[in-house]
UniProtKB/TrEMBL annotation:
Belongs to the major facilitator superfamily. Proton-dependent oligopeptide transporter (POT/PTR) (TC 2.A.17) family. Gene3D superfamilies: MFS general substrate transporter like domains. SUPFAM superfamilies: MFS general substrate transporter (SSF103473). Pfam families: PTR2. This is Uncharacterized protein. It is found in: Membrane.
Length: 606
């Protein structure tokens, strides 16, 4: 947030008036520390920069800044964590569902066999793995609260890594010879490891994503000159977007290498190795966290601000709720909905005792709630994406694979992401910027829904031809003879899903960071992650379509849902999209405006 001294457009007298007003608020209304800290930049990050005029904002090309090295270190920590997460969970299905192979002490199936351990069957396997996914994406809500209110993001991540390490060790114990041969004991230890791993993963995921973007400290647009002499605007929003693209790039490197290597470790050596190798890689997390401890930009905890944000919302709702739904919606969408909660809208004598913030805090809370409203559409997107984790794997098994394991093809998704993320960063997005095409975050998210829809259309058409060419017709899943269609035809679905992730998922991370109040970033990020848990819960309603002869309907329904959701999403967010620059610039200049407004109010009242 820019300090008073950073904006030369503010007259000295007005600056002094603002300081006097703040001191008055501090004495009489106990202005909180979070607000006070916004008045001055501790490191002068914007000192000496030239800021664009309105005309320059409209005409100059925008570019991103360079990415700090500390962000790459944190991205590598995420790579190691995702390697361990996906590398271990990729073998869960066989570990739970299949019995221990005859004569095996490790669960390895060998070249011609199927690996297994607990022998609990498909229903138990589906139930446990679904619970694990749901648990891992519910726990970020708890991890976010701890970070925002008590420990801060860095400390919460460190403790979460320790908890997850304990889960990894228990998982190894469940698979070592001697334990794995006792299914009941192995199942108990394994279930406990899943619960502990979920707690650690939740605390890690809620905080690592905000921490990586916080390594870039600039919040204002500023003018720069390229090597060719072109004057451009360096946009912090573009920079954050780029940080998250490469953050996601690192995620998928970890996921791809972990998933492929551990399936072979499970098959030829045993589950103990498939759980041990991810644990060894996971040990890199605490090492790199410690090495970079003095380089990371950290945000200290500010106490629980959720209660204060909800109090602001409740204050704004007064007198706006009605038994008439249309009137209620109209009142909630009114332009002045949040104005009543601003201190400048209340006389100093009539302000409630809890109104110890400035106008800018209300604007940030407003922005945070709008971001959470955007995330409410994501369960439909994740419902579409989740098809690559189950139904598309099963679809591959009904096609001619020529010796390629059917569950390996799902790695086409991270493989495509590793290729196309740099393509988007180096070619596509810069080309759009040069053409002055504003491919804003909300446009990207909407486009992500439509590319997800296209992926499901591809899968539905392919499923139709599988039924048409398979000897068993619409019961291809139970047929011993596969369809003559080559399994690599599925590539289209995976590439389209990968593009949808670039547009929707990566941008969702960016949106959660840029639109959240500074002391609620972990919380808003956890709300975004929680949408994945909701998608898993909603997905249970569509299980009946996930079997022959209804699979064409399954993919068709997903395509229709994604298309409708994308259309409605863009319809309701167009107005918000036009406010993108204004919302991003809250951190850069609205403090001054809100304080000037309060100073004017104070002068009138005194």
């Amino acid at each position: 947030m820019a300090g008073l001294q950073a904006d030369s457009a503010i007259p000295q007298g007005l600056a002094e008036a603002k300081k006097d007003e703040f001191e008055y608020e501090k004495r009489h209304h106990s202005v909180d520390v979070a607000s006070a800290s916004e008045f001055h930049e501790p490191d002068g990050i914007h000192d000496g920069l030239t800021f664009p005029t309105e005309e320059e904002r409209a005409t100059l090309r925008r570019v991103s800044d360079s990415i700090p090295w500390s962000a790459y270190l944190i991205a590598f920590i995420e790579l190691a964590e995702r390697f361990s997460f996906y590398g271990s969970s990729v073998v869960f299905t066989n570990f739970i569902q299949q019995p221990l192979p005859l004569g095996s002490h490790t669960g390895a199936g060998g070249k011609d066999g199927v690996s297994g351990a607990l022998g609990l069957g498909q229903r138990a396997s589906t139930g446990l793995t679904t619970f694990y996914q749901f648990w891992c994406y519910v726990m970020p809500l708890f991890g976010a609260y701890v970070a925002d209110a008590h420990w801060g993001r860095y400390k919460t991540i460190c403790w979460s890594v320790g908890v997850a390490m304990l889960g990894h060790l228990l998982m190894i114990i469940s698979a070592v010879p001697g334990v794995i041969e006792k299914p009941h004991a192995a199942a108990g230890v394994f279930s406990l490891s899943m619960i502990i791993m979920g707690i650690g993963t939740g605390g890690f995921k809620a905080n690592i994503s905000p921490l990586v973007a916080e390594q870039y400290k600039k919040t204002k647009l500023y003018i720069s000159t390229t090597k060719s002499g072109e004057r451009v605007i360096v946009d912090p929003g573009y920079t954050v977007s780029r940080i998250y693209m490469y953050f996601y790039f690192f995620i998928n490197i970890g996921a791809l290498v972990g998933q492929i290597s551990m399936t072979y470790a499970e098959k030829y050596v045993g589950f103990w190795l498939a759980y041990t190798l991810p644990t060894i890689v996971f040990c890199l997390c605490p090492i790199i966290l410690w090495i970079g401890r003095n380089r990371y930009v950290r945000s200290p905890p500010t106490g629980s601000v959720l209660a204060g944000a909800l109090r602001i919302l409740r204050f704004c709702l007064r007198g706006r709720l009605s038994f008439n739904p249309a009137r209620t919606i109209r009142n909630l969408k009114a332009d002045d909905f949040w104005e009543t909660a601003k201190p400048s809208s209340q006389s100093i004598e009539s302000r409630p005792s809890w109104m110890t913030y400035d106008d800018n805090w209300v604007e940030e809370v407003k922005r945070g709630f709008k971001a959470c409203a955007v995330f409410c559409w994501f369960p439909i997107y994740w419902l579409t994406y989740n098809q690559i984790n189950n139904n598309l794997v099963s679809q591959a098994a009904t096609m001619t694979t020529n010796g390629v394991p059917n569950d390996v093809l799902s790695n086409l998704d991270p493989f495509a992401l590793i290729i196309f993320i740099p393509v988007c960063d180096i070619l596509i997005y810069p080309a759009l910027h040069r053409l002055k095409i504003n491919f804003s975050p909300l446009k990207k998210i909407g486009f992500g829904f439509f590319t997800g829809c296209a992926a499901m259309i591809w899968a539905a058409v392919l499923q139709h031809y599988i039924y048409k060419t398979n000897p068993c017709g619409e019961y291809a899943g139970t047929c011993e003879t596969p369809s003559p269609l080559n399994v690599w035809i599925q590539t289209g679905s995976y590439v389209l899903i990968a593009f949808s992730e670039i547009f929707a998922s990566i941008t969702g991370l960016e949106y959660a960071f840029t639109k959240a109040p500074k002391n609620m970033r972990s919380l808003v990020m956890s709300v975004f992650l929680f949408m994945t848990a909701l998608a898993n819960a909603i997905g249970e309603a569509f299980v009946a379509l996930s079997a022959d002869p209804l699979l064409v309907w399954n993919y068709g329904v997903m395509a229709v849902l994604a298309f409708i959701a994308g259309t409605i999403f863009w319809t309701v967010t167009r107005k918000l999209d036009r406010q993108e620059d204004e919302l991003n610039n809250l951190d850069a200049g609205h403090v001054e405006g809100s304080l000037a407004q309060q100073g004017a109010t104070a002068s009138k009242e005194h």
